[in-house]
């Protein structure tokens, strides 16, 4: 392909394999409960990172899809009694919801801050609604929505077709890692396709893309839907991990956190949001073990520091640092070569 | 007589109480080159935008036909897909991408299989090989104008609308621009909006003069530029 790659870069298979091996071997040296949660958060961050970093769509209420995935899984598995169809529904329902909300916003020409406000309001409405479903009347099939207390004790993930073969612990960790790697590869596939390149074009200049004949509204709705599905999958995996779903999955905090993870990790990359989620998620867990410092305060301070010191985020800063180091090494090699040549010339002259 | 490729019938556009385009009846034939001129606020760009569906929310009436098909009320992208290429008044390009990427986005929409070849051809035609992988945000204004025209060309349109292509273009670049426009005109009909009378004269095309949202005069350059009404409302001493 002639084009310069649209700034996406090629997949580094050596890095990819190294990460995969490390994550596969991790259960040998560590418990898997926390890494599983971090991988779920990384998946959630990846879904926003893809949409925001490459299509320029910033949703302030991305938790809506995460929460819908979690609730859909809980309700469906409660009613069906096993997880296979529940997981599929937990992807499809957020996608459908994303398609409806996305189409309304994009075909209604709503963008920028208004889009942020609408997505935020949708999440808050869902949060309020779920909090108000405490009564016995609020049930879908056998599943009581449970209001503030949420839905506990639903069937967790099982081997497809065998409801008795439950997947938990280390096996569940591997399932989550597979979903994360699979979603990452899907995102790479999208970005390498004509569809992904059109999204990058839209991020850069919506009007020009329209003048080139691209159906900008349709393409934006499509990526919004896909990312809603990935966030829904993350929500369903979270529900399985926590074994309870409460309205907090729709909270403002959940929506704000994922934005901070993406900013800190690096908008416009796929690795960055995942790195941001793992770093800040770990910090959040560590801070949760103590009571002297407020968690949100520390997260806010980190966000301010990152925006001021490394505005493009950790991942792009790391890449730039490696490039600079390589340039420095090349310069030193060149300088050494030059001085050796000078010495040789002097010796010959003598 | 060749086929009419674009036509407006009683086209009017109002913004609040202001009439920007007023009952304009305009027709352009296949492979015709037409220049639109007129004083600031004459309605040229609004007319341009109303033909390409860019004026959503404006109070518009009348009809726009492209190759006989009524496109009034169509979204912009559908009109463009008929084979229309547009260069906007202010260069509208993807600043964060390279020249190659910009051209590829245009070429791949219309002909994905031959996109790479089309990009290479335009880069060679515009002699941009040395800067093909530079981000367009790093380019000079004139180069950005050329990139945008290149994007229009890469989609191989049969109707091209250029809004002020000579704005900010230097003397040498202007000659190049004129030759590019002539080349485009071999296969496509063109409407060129511009203020620069030197540039308009260089194009040696039929001219339509806009004034207060209406067509004042149409004709060949000598006829139009010597018309006392045109001198009065627009040209003044610009013909010199």
Please summarize the sheet with the most strands of chain A: 2 strands, antiparallel
The largest chain-to-chain contact, stated as pair and per-chain residue counts, equals: A-B, 26 and 33 residues
Helicity of chain B, in percent? 25-40%
Note the run of SSEs of chain B as H and E. Answer: EEEHEEHEHHHEHEHEEHH
Secondary structure category of chain A = mainly alpha
Spans of chain A of at least 5 consecutive residues whose pLDDT stays below 50 are none
Shape of chain A: globular
How many domains would you count in the coordinates of chain A?
A: 2
Q: What is the string of helix and strand elements of chain A?
A: HHHHHEEEEEHHHHEHHHH
Instruction: Please give the number of β-strands of chain B.
Output: 10
Assembly state: heterodimer
Shape of chain B: globular
Keywords:
heterodimer, A: 350 residues, mainly alpha, two-stranded antiparallel sheet, globular, B: six-stranded mixed β-sheet, four-stranded antiparallel β-sheet
Question: Briefly, what is this?
Answer:
The complex is a heterodimer of chains A (350) and B (240). With 350 residues, chain A is mainly alpha-helical.
Question: Could you explain how this protein is built, in words?
Answer:
The complex is a heterodimer of chains A (350) and B (240). Chain A is mostly helical. Helix content of chain A is 72%, strand content 4%. Chain A has 13 helices and 6 strands. In chain A, helix 2 packs across helix 11 (271-288) and helix 6 (169-192) packs antiparallel against helix 9. Chain A is globular. Chain A starts with 12 loop residues before the first helix and ends with a helix. Chain B is α/β, with parallel strands linked by helices and 240 residues long. Chain B has 9 helices and 10 strands. In chain B, the strands form 2 sheets. Chain B has a 6-stranded mixed beta sheet, with helices on both faces. Chain B has a 4-stranded antiparallel beta sheet with strand order 2-1-4-5, covered by helices on one side. The model of chain B has no long low-confidence stretch (mean pLDDT 88). The A-B interface holds A 1-7, 109, 194, 197-198, 200-201, 203-205, 207-216 and B 52, 56, 75-77, 80-81, 85-86, 88, 92-98, 100-101, 104-106, 108-110, 112, 115-116, 119-120, 133, 151, 155.
